[in-house]
Amino acid sequence: MTAYLDLPALRRASGTVKLPGSKSISNRMLLLAALAEGETEIRDLLDSDDTRVMLAALQKVGVGVTALGVNSYRVSGCAGIFPGKEADLFMGNAGTAIRPLTAALALSGGHYRLSGVPRMHERPIGDLVDGLRQIGCDVRYTANEGYPPLEIFPAEIKLAAPIRVRGDVSSQFLTALLMALPLTGKTAMIEVTTELISKPYIEITLNLMARFGVTVEREGWQRFTIAAGQHYRSPGLLHVEGDASAASYFLAAGAIGGGPVRVEGVGRQSIQGDVRFADALETLGARITWGDNFIEAAAPMSGKLKAFDLYLNHIPDAAMTLAVVALFADGPCKLRNIASWRVKETDRIAAMATELRKLGAMVEEGSDWLAVSPPPTLLPNVAIDTYDDHRMAMCFSLDALGGVPVRINDPGCVAKTFPQYFDAFGAIAAPVIAIDGPSASGKGTVAQRVAAVLGFHFLDSGALYRLTALAAMRANVALDDEAGVARVAAALPAEFVGEQVLLAGDDVTAAIRAEDVGVGASKVAALPAVRSALFDRQRAYRRFPGLVADGRDMGSVVFPEALVKVFLTASAEARGERRYKQLIDKGMPDNMWPLLQDIVQDLRERDARDAARSVAPLKKCDDAGLVDTTPMGIEEAVAAVMEMVHRKLPFFN
Length: 653
Ligand code: DC
Description:
By secondary structure, the chain is an alpha/beta fold. The protein contains 21 helices and 31 strands. The mean pLDDT is 95. The site of 2'-deoxycytidine-5'-monophosphate has 14 residues, from helix 14 and helix 16.
């Protein structure tokens, strides 16, 4: 666990993010699958603290759960009767787990204890317990009235009058009752006695119950009826869609940092209310594109995002992201109807106000609103506290896109719903320096030095083509067999450990530098299928604090959004001399010294081949700076590149 994470000053965000599974859908599906008759296979389940809490609790009450592969599980439903009649359950800080489980367990005729982290014991559950007591459930508070921890005892259930429940503190109380009541097998009615908040979450609940064969009649948002005789039945196979709340950070990054940023896993077909965050961004002037399974966001065509005054009860979680987006708006902004923020992982209205002020914003707060006036410039090097609240950490990472370094304290709290968040954010926002150029221009050495000076990651993309050629040669795959070599490239068991390059555990650091492998690399690099097979692997190097990528098409194809693009070259004669010296320095016997003009000729032919190929030919992009190293030594070349870097990234030294 690191105490903090320093994000560098960022300027631009663009790229594609595959979202983790939705927390709300994951935990509902797990419980419904557990209560159903039959086996359910759930794919793309979110892997996070909150879902682990639910999985562990279900296993403790005797539900069979088998891991099938990455984020896939088979749940053996208990047909409404948990086999375990006695259990102590630890619910962490997962509201989506403790609320529905309390209701289901209260109707299960067993003896259970539920507790959580200290903050969970400050989060209200009284409205739900009141509802359950109306039908005879025996649920008791073991510390403070109205809050977990709870103890549940077997009881006789009487479903006479409608259950009356408040809907203005958390919609999860209604969700919990709705999901649990079919266990009684009798007609059940619920009346919501207040205004209902966060309605889209109730829609998720009803939608998923229907997939398990139980329909609910609804009169407005006031009255819900579950007809007698309905039981959950497994639908067989289910997929969890991407997390729409998590999507909000990336969409906001696209709207603030130029974009386009695409999130995959949610879209037009989504059942999550938080996709409406994209509409809110659109009203601020962001350009939004919808697909069936993606949403994309880009900055306004010109100017800043517009100031806003919005009612946000329909997107309570994603609305937090708007509070930070307000820092980038062209005037004072107001977020209204967000009272539920006060009873979440932390008091989110207070926490937001405190942290936004640290950045220089003027902030006012009310019981259910927040007003944010953006500062003329954001204050750099602020340490943001996250209050054990994943969304605080994710929201405030966006601040760095204002071109200021920011420190996020306790960044590990994102594990509640999105353990890989900072890698995903880095993949669209970490600065990239692309250094392209022909063989023997010195770019490999220069790129490595620049990466070391900046403390950035380093990608030697040529090594991937060399590894592909070597692996193909070792596997007897002909180097012109496009599909065969592409398969080798896609499954390349390569690892970079410090200076060492490993292929299937074998040290090939020297082997990939052999002349025949270099010639092979240049052949396989001309095959389009090989280039696309290596594409994602190269993109994955984009991580915080940044990346220096060395190759032929880093700036043109792989990282077209690179902040700094350098085309490093030298005359063929100068490069020939460097290569010649290298060969001699490597200890080649003097009777084998090649002719300098043969080396120069060979380099010219290789340049011609790299420049003539149909895909990703070697060429200087219009937006790349030219560094001609013919008259330079390595130190001068490094200094020339660093000067370009400093112009774009003044905070890096
Ligand atoms: O930089 P290098 O000599 O290690 O590259 C080996 C071969 O791979 C070279 O012929 C060009 C090719 N290559 C490429 O096509 N695209 C890249 N991004 C990097 C290398």
